Amino acid sequence: MSKIRNQKSEVSNLWICPSSVFHPRSSIFRVPGFTLLELLVVVSIISFFLAISFPLLSKAIIKAKVAQAQKDISSIKSAAEAYYTEYSKIPVPGTDLGASPDVGYTGADSQRIIKVLIGDDTDAFISNREKIKFLEPGQLIQPDGTFTDSWGRQYSMKFDADYDGAITYNGTGHYTRVIVTSYGSNGDDSDESNDIVSYE
Ligand SMILES: [Ca+2]
Ligand SMILES: [Ca+2]
User: What's the CA-to-centroid distance between 72 and ligand 2, angstroms?
Assistant: First the structure.
């Protein structure tokens, strides 16, 4: 009799209240996933980290573009100086040699000079008759065949056309044969604050 009473007691302990089993928050029947509050917390945390990381990422991208432009400018300047050493003249059309004041080149004219420096001798007015590769264009080349800076704009150049050993640029004289310029992220030559220039 005592044994039967104990078994009943055990069965009683195993009984589960139906209301707790079918309650929506029951651990047995709870739908796996997040509650609305948990989702809002996760979205808020992700938004917070995006908000603080985006400016840092933008700064890093701008810094990388400036570094690439500085590297390209240095390469173009070195190539122009190597051209001078080889041919005893600057890489500009013959009609500009001896011109005073010194001559600046932008757009299609600067494209012609870069093409000559990479060993393309199709430009008879500048000429690289030995087809010497003074410049490795690298990522200067865009899919459409143009040579541009990190912002997709063409570099500008100014040469010491009058051979006095100096170039005046933005009102200041510099002792150099060539100055190469990227007008920076805004592409604006009147705003020098973000220009990248070879003499700096
Ligand atoms: Ca000069
Ligand atoms: Ca600028």
Answer: 17
